[in-house]
Amino acid sequence: MMVNNSTHSFLQEELKKIQQEHCTEPLFHYLTLLNKWNKTYNLTAIRNTDEMVSKHLIDSLAIIPWVQGTRIIDVGTGAGLPGIPLAIAQPDKHFTLLDANGKKTRFLNEVKRQLALKNVEIVHFRVESYHPHPGFDTVMSRAFTSLAQMIYWTNHLIAPDGLWLAMKGRLPDTELQELMHDYTVEPYSVNRVEGERCCILIKNTQPRN
User: Fold this and answer.
1) pLDDT above 70: residue 1
2) By the number of CB atoms within 10 A of the CB, which of 17, 80, 93, 101 ranks highest?
3) Which of 142, 126, 165, 132 is nearest to 79 (CA)?
4) Is 178 within 8 Å of 147 (Cβ atoms)?
């Protein structure tokens, strides 16, 4: 499916509803690249560009109120979600996008180049092999793994007072019961996206190893 003027108008209208209309052009550019590269690299199962707007772009921007600090890492970023939309909307923050898939990081490097995203770093590493310093203020993921596994695999990435942020669909009751940390559940909705959506916020109350 082509990215056309209709999709551009739909994106602009959806961004207007969340006071992010100023991001229309760079997000449309990103959407165009995602649609083009998806035909070869299978970056997302969603093929309809209007669905990409709702389920990828607007969904990513919905978590802006909970992103903490200025150093953020998106673990298992895939096609750059939620990292790229957030980096476009928050140019004053630095985003590290981590993924072990070389095809996906090649795509992301092209996005970074074409959109001139100076606040984005693309890292082609397995999460357990990446050891930056200092830790990140927010460690976030979208459908990366279970909450307990997310904390286990990324504990070396988070700052002492950092925040884990996990984007989920239906409230993951079983996963929450397994957590040893304090957490907050923030439900949210996205226009034209059916079903429950929530953001799980987990404070790093443990000292780094």
Assistant:
1) no
2) 80
3) 142
4) yes
Q: Which CATH class is domain 5-203?
A: alpha beta
The pTM is what? Answer: 0.94
Evaluate if residue 55 carries a pLDDT over 60: yes
Mean pLDDT in the chain? 94
Measured between its terminal Cα atoms, the distance across the chain in Å is 48
Residue 206 has a pLDDT of 59
